[in-house]
Design brief:
SH3 type barrels; 40% strand; 6 strands; alpha+beta; 75 residues; three-stranded antiparallel beta sheet
Length: 75
C-alpha cells in the first residue's frame, strides 16, 4: 500500500455515514480495530486515543490491508 492509497482509504472509511468500525491489518498479523471516526491521519501515518490501549499509532509502511470489520455470529 502506498502512502497515497493509505490516506485515500483512511479518508473514505472515516467519512462513511453512518460510520462503521473497520480493521487495519498490519504486516506482522496484528489487527487494529478503528471503532470510531475520531482518527488523526495524514502523510502516511494515523493515530487515535483508545480508553483501553492509550495512544494507538500506525504507518502505511506497516499496513497490509484495511477492510470492514466483520462480526462473527454467535453459535
Amino acid at each position: 500500500m502506498t502512502e497515497q492509497e493509505f490516506d485515500q482509504t483512511m479518508r473514505s472509511f472515516l467519512k462513511r455515514r453512518p460510520f462503521f468500525p473497520f480493521v487495519v491489518e498490519l504486516l506482522n498479523g496484528e489487527r487494529i480495530v478503528i471503532p470510531f471516526p475520531e482518527v488523526a491521519f495524514g502523510g502516511g501515518v494515523a493515530g487515535f486515543r483508545s480508553d483501553e490501549e492509550g495512544l494507538v499509532e500506525f504507518s502505511y509502511k506497516k499496513v497490509s490491508s484495511i477492510h470492514v470489520l466483520e462480526y462473527e455470529a454467535a453459535p
